[in-house]
Amino acid sequence: MEKQVAIRLISLLILATMVTAAIDKSPKAVEKWFKNLPHAKQKTTRFHFYFHEIFGGENQTAPVIAQANITSQSATFFGMLRMFDNPLTVGPEPNSKQVGRAEGIHGAPSMTELTLFFNFNFVFTDGPYNGSTLSVLGRVAESQEYRELPIIGGSGVFRLAQGIATAKTYFSNDTLVIVEYNLIVLHY
């Protein structure tokens, strides 16, 4: 009897995982989702992971795609733009389990302070959030120990998401930056 209960619970867990990972994104399904939204309860999801950005070498994940004529004379890299596709991992080690990617763009918008303007998505590629994204947009001042970026939306499980991504540099040198992220996400 216990064995049958365990098998049923495992089957139910597998089915729930499959349903979560296979969100119907067709226009009719999205319309139905919106109609049910007034009755939906808002959820809070927390994440902790590491973002690995490589600036140099053969395995570069954040190449320069444009820069202003004055960038090379600027102490703040003013006018430089990078496109990035950085792995998100469970731990700070490069070979740690990958759970997604951070894909987007950042640029140096200040002539007087080392800052970055970010516009990117956390793209989840593993686990119950596989195929879902969170969109982030904001300014980061490198002089701050903890930087805060607003989460302004999402897709899949994170439709209509909002929240905060807190970032702290874990490691940095001339070719690599590892950033520790903590996210608090409100979604339906």
Automatic annotation (TrEMBL):
<dbReference type="GO" id="GO:0009699">
    <property type="term" value="P:phenylpropanoid biosynthetic process"/>
</dbReference>
<protein>
    <recommendedName>
        <fullName>Dirigent protein</fullName>
    </recommendedName>
</protein>
<feature type="signal peptide">
    <location>
        <begin position="1"/>
        <end position="21"/>
    </location>
</feature>
<keyword id="KW-0732">Signal</keyword>
<keyword id="KW-0964">Secreted</keyword>
<comment type="similarity">
    <text>Belongs to the plant dirigent protein family.</text>
</comment>
<dbReference type="InterPro" id="IPR004265">
    <property type="entry name" value="Dirigent"/>
</dbReference>
<dbReference type="GO" id="GO:0048046">
    <property type="term" value="C:apoplast"/>
</dbReference>
<comment type="subunit">
    <text>Homodimer.</text>
</comment>
<dbReference type="Pfam" id="PF03018">
    <property type="entry name" value="Dirigent"/>
</dbReference>
<keyword id="KW-0052">Apoplast</keyword>
<comment type="function">
    <text>Dirigent proteins impart stereoselectivity on the phenoxy radical-coupling reaction, yielding optically active lignans from two molecules of coniferyl alcohol in the biosynthesis of lignans, flavonolignans, and alkaloids and thus plays a central role in plant secondary metabolism.</text>
</comment>
<dbReference type="InterPro" id="IPR044859">
    <property type="entry name" value="Allene_oxi_cyc_Dirigent"/>
</dbReference>
